[in-house]
Amino acid sequence: MDGKKIFICDDDAGIIDVLKLILESTDAEIIAESRSARAFERLIKEKPDVLIVDLWMPEVSGEQLIHKVRSHVELQETYIICISASYEGEKIATDAGADVFLAKPFDMNAILSLV
């Protein structure tokens, strides 16, 4: 993962901390944003290789953010992993354009293998 960027967007600081801890071993640059309303602007600036996004967030939902990323020409190649505790999350995430859906609580090895 040398030189790669992973962007995490989740309104739960605990989830961000856990993901950072898990992903430290990848040698990727980890960028985190807990306010979804600020995420899209930062995504355009950072142009990450991978976006890990929660589905249910205040301000801008993960579904809305995924749609915006997929419709922006500079971000279309971003690999999107959507995480959620929602029962219907997988359908919502894949319909929005996520590459993969992981149910919370997620397995650490599943995250690492996807990244």
Automatic annotation (TrEMBL):
Ranges that cross the membrane: none
Report any one BP term from Gene Ontology.
phosphorelay signal transduction system
Among InterPro entries, the record links this protein to:
Bact_response_regulator, CheY-like_superfamily, Sig_transdc_resp-reg_receiver
One Pfam family assigned to this protein is: Response_reg
Q: Which residue positions does 4-aspartylphosphate occur at? A: 54
Where the record annotates domain Response regulatory, the positions are 5-115
Q: What keywords does the record list, in alphabetical order?
A: Phosphoprotein, Two-component regulatory system
Q: What is this protein called?
A: Response regulator
Species in which this protein is naturally found: Sphingobacterium gobiense
